[in-house]
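Q: Hi! First time doing this. I have a protein sequence and I read that you can turn it into a structure. Is that right? Here it is:
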Amino acid sequence: MTAGAIYSYYANRDELIDRVITDVYGALADTMEAAYDSVPAAEPGAEYWRSGRAYGGGRSSIPRSFRLI
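A: Yes, that's right. Below is the predicted 3D structure, encoded as structure tokens:
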């Protein structure tokens, strides 16, 4: 695929950038939500710690994506 071919899928550069940002932050939000939901009710407050760790881990696991945005 050539660099210009990507624009056949999007109307313009801004739409492409919006899609990349939405996808990257959406994936990170899903990871954080799963971490938050995985904490047992008997551990009050732990869900915030785990979701924070997921944020850091999510960012470091896909560094190229975060460099894009």
